[in-house]
Specification:
single chain; 388 residues; alpha/beta; five-stranded mixed beta sheet; two-stranded antiparallel ribbon; 9 helices; 7 strands
């Protein structure tokens, strides 16, 4: 590197090469001068050509010097142009870097906003999941509690009685049924519906063959299925027989009773795979009902109760209708009397109007001293005499 002024130049730069060439020319010129001086002593004739060559060489050196100056000016212009170009490139790069930075900042800000929103939504969903998990845990506890209730025969019976009570209470008025009613044979029925004769009071008893049903659901092979079906038949037949013998009393209850199954699943299984048990219940006059069919049956009973109560009140209704007819007849008579009174009052008003007109005419005559016109009036009851 060679530095010319404030600007460094490499060795292969044209200006450096030109300067080196000029220096070499000067050295050559100096050598030639030395050689010329040495040869001046040898031959005076050779001095003139040498002088001419020296002059020509000086002119060439002067030309090289001028070219070097021009080259230096051109290099300075090139340097200034390169500096200006570098300045513009740097400014453009700074502007682009600023735009890129601003774009990245906006993108990062938008990304941060979307990330915050997504995190908020995720937090809400996690809270909803936590609430659902709490509900599931609560429901699991309730299911476990229900399993504990159903695993015991006494609590399972109480569960069926409570469900039966809720259904009957919604379907019938309070005086139409009795829960835990004791019959004349000492048996206590879960519910006794007070229907009129016929058919008479009818008993509803709750039964829940859960063990047989669960065994049927857990059966994994043919032998287990057959055994579970046998358990189901034994349990249902025992319930049908017990209800038929305990709660169907001649002269006291209806000639039939209802067996309430507090499970739609057990009821569906019974009708789907044990139709012979349903037929045996019909033969023993024990009708098997589920919560849904029990509600429909109770609605029919409510219509029967309503009809019976209407019949019981038929005499009172007829008596009230007779009294109502008498009141209406009396009202018509009094209306006729009032109409006659209004007619008489209208006639009296008309007579009063006629008398008022005559009195007005008589007063005007008196005011005008028209005594001659008073005599022909046949309606006058007295003669008014005026002293002179």
């Amino acid at each position: 590197m060679i530095q010319i002024g404030d600007t460094p130049y490499p060795l292969d730069h044209p200006l450096v090469l030109a300067a080196l060439g000029g220096a070499a020319a000067l050295l050559l010129l100096f050598g030639l001068v030395v050689l010329t001086l040495r040869a001046s002593g040898r031959s005076a004739r050779a001095l003139d050509p040498m002088v001419a060559q020296m002059v020509a060489l000086g002119q060439r050196v002067q030309g090289l010097s001028d070219g070097q100056q021009q080259l230096a000016g051109g290099l300075h212009q090139v340097t200034e142009a390169q500096t200006s170009s570098q300045t513009r490139v740097l400014a453009l790069m700074e502007q682009r870097l600023a735009d890129v930075s601003r774009g990245m900042t906006e993108s990062l800000h938008g990304t941060a906003t979307r990330t915050a929103r997504s995190l908020g939504e995720l937090q809400q969903r996690l809270e909803a999941i936590d609430r659902a998990q709490a509900n599931i845990e609560k429901l699991s506890g309730n299911v476990l509690g229900l399993q504990d209730i159903l695993s015991n025969k006494q609590t399972r019976g109480a569960f069926g009685e409570i469900q039966l009570h809720d259904i009957v209470q919604k379907a019938l008025p309070g005086d139409a049924f009795t829960m835990q009613a004791t019959l004349s044979n000492g048996r206590r029925a879960d519910c006794l519906i007070h229907l009129p004769n016929p058919p008479g009071p009818i008993v509803i008893d709750s039964k829940f063959p859960l063990e047989a049903y669960e065994a049927l659901r857990r059966a994994e092979n043919q032998s287990q299925t057959i055994e579970a079906q046998r358990m189901m038949r034994v349990a249902l037949r025992a319930h049908i027989k017990a209800i038929s013998e305990r709660y169907i009393l001649e002269g006291e209850t209806a000639d039939g009773a209802l067996l309430f199954l507090p499970s739609e699943a057990v009821y569906a299984e019974l009708h789907a795979n044990f139709p012979e048990l349903v037929r045996e219940g019909f033969a023993a006059k024990v009708w098997i009902v589920s919560p849904t069919t029990c509600m429909a049956t109770l609605n029919t009973m409510r219509a029967v109760l309503k009809d019976a109560r209407m019949r019981e009140q038929a005499g009172a209704i007829r008596k009230e209708l007779a009294a109502l007819y008498a009141d209406v007849d009396r009202l018509g008579t009094r209306g006729d009397n009032l109409d006659r009174h209004f007619g008489q009052a209208a006639k009296d008003l008309e007579d009063i109007k006629i008398s008022a007109d005559k009195a007005g005419k008589r007063a005007r005559r008196l005011d005008n001293f028209d005594f001659e016109e008073l005599a022909p009036d046949t309606d006058a009851t007295r003669v008014v005499q005026i002293k002179p």
